[in-house]
TrEMBL record:
It is found in: Membrane. The lineage of its organism: Eukaryota, Metazoa, Ecdysozoa, Arthropoda, Hexapoda. Gene3D superfamilies: ABC transporter type 1, transmembrane domain. This is ATP-binding cassette sub-family B member 8, mitochondrial. Residues 131-391 form the ABC transmembrane type-1 domain. Keywords: ATP-binding, Ion transport, Membrane, Nucleotide-binding, Transmembrane, Transmembrane helix, Transport. The chain crosses the membrane at residues 127-145, 186-206, 283-300. Pfam families: ABC_membrane (PF00664). GO terms for biological process: monoatomic ion transport; oligopeptide export from mitochondrion.
Length: 391
């Protein structure tokens, strides 16, 4: 059909060259010219189209072929253009303006594996200081085991002279008996204080230097990312990774090295001392402690998950305040000051709620631990006095 129309226009005489007839008054000149032009154009289209159809048709079947050809053209164009269609879905409903923020506990992903090789690359330059800190921590653990034994010797000496009575006490023998354990106890206190200073000082240096290096590498890795990375991650979250997360790593590193080594050494030393004092009580503790450790490990796993949610919610609240303050002109222009205050209040209340739940969990964990340990001590005392049997 388009070909027929174009061929007709090529063979027609331009309308502008045809006479317009007798001129009318000036007021009706444009109206008459427009009507004449439209009428002649319409007649010419009908006449040229009919002539072309008669020349190219062989009966009425050619008209049907023309119609079918147009239909086929439409179907072909639609089929070839099917990839131009776009499927759109409505975005998930979100509350307020927190569209790109991660909801605590809702982020996906598999288990994050700790990169020990990367950790060793940060720790290797401080290996000498780390060995010194470990030895100092082990020395502190040794003194923590020996000091109660010396205190027991001092208490036994005092109780012996207390039973003898004030009149029968020989001052010279009392001083002689108390001199040796007292000086040894005083020396152990001084040594414990000195080694405590050494390992805390060394661990502080190692932790601070490692944290500074991690911050520098992390900032360099963030700053070279593509712009798409900054579109997907909030500025507040990135700042928290540079500050809060590195601080948590530093604190955890120092606690694991200091308290972990001391606790491990004290566990071994205390177990050996307990076997030397009472093998029966040590055997009971050896059976009951693993069961308690398994139960406390399950509680600790729940507390770690709750701690992660609480930290994520705190970062969410920080991001809200950071964005509001960074875009204060936009907030003022839209008169959204009180809306931002209300949003920040909701996020901080949620963070406080999660922190309170974490505090309750830690309190339950500590109370159960103390109850278990005190129960073991009380049970051992009852067994030693034959108040209860071993079963």
């Amino acid at each position: 059909m388009l070909k027929l129309l174009l061929s007709g226009y090529r063979t027609c005489q331009p309308v502008c060259r045809q006479p317009l007839g007798q001129l009318r008054p000036r007021g009706k000149l444009l109206t008459t010219a427009r009507n004449t032009f439209n009428q002649q154009t319409r007649n010419h289209l009908v006449r040229s189209g009919a002539q072309q159809a008669v020349r190219t048709s062989r009966g009425g079947s050619k008209i049907v072929q023309l119609l079918l050809g147009g239909t086929a053209l439409t179907v072909t164009v639609g089929y070839n253009c099917r990839k131009w269609f776009v499927h759109c879905e409505a975005a998930a409903a979100t509350s307020g303006r927190l569209v790109g923020h991660k909801t605590p506990g809702a982020e996906g992903g598999g288990t994050v594996r700790f990169d020990w090789g990367k950790f060793w690359s940060y720790l290797r330059p401080h290996l000498v200081k780390l060995v010194g800190a470990v030895l100092a921590a082990l020395a502190v653990a040794y003194f923590n085991i020996q000091i109660p034994n010396l205190l027991g010797v001092v208490v036994n000496t005092l109780s012996k002279y207390a039973r003898a009575g004030m009149k029968d006490i020989d001052t010279g023998s009392f001083v002689e008996d108390m001199k040796a354990p007292s000086f040894r106890l005083f020396g152990m206190y001084l040594a414990q204080a000195g080694f405590t200073f050494v390992y805390i000082f060394l661990l502080s240096q190692i932790g601070e230097q490692m944290a500074a290096k991690i911050r520098q590498d992390l900032f360099r890795q963030i700053i070279i990312q593509d712009l798409e990375f900054f579109d997907e991650n909030r500025t507040g979250e990135l700042v928290n990774r540079l500050t809060a997360d590195v601080q948590d790593f530093k604190s955890s590193f120092k606690q694991c090295i200091s308290q972990g080594l001391r606790s491990f050494a004290q566990l071994i030393g205390g177990g050996v001392s307990l076997f030397l004092i009472s093998p029966q009580l040590a055997s009971i503790a050896l059976v009951s402690v693993p069961a308690a450790v398994a139960m406390f490990s399950f509680l600790g796993k729940s507390l770690r998950a709750l701690s992660k949610r609480s930290q994520a919610q705190s970062e969410r609240a920080t991001s809200v305040s950071e964005e509001a303050l960074s875009n204060i002109r936009t907030v003022r222009a839209s008169a959204s000051e009180y809306a931002e205050v209300e949003l920040f209040r909701q996020e901080t209340d949620r963070a406080a709620e999660l922190s309170e739940q974490l505090g309750v969990g830690i309190a339950v964990f500590q109370s159960l631990t103390n109850l278990f340990l005190n129960g073991m001590v009380l049970g051992g005392h009852f067994m030693s006095t034959s108040s209860i049997s071993a079963g």
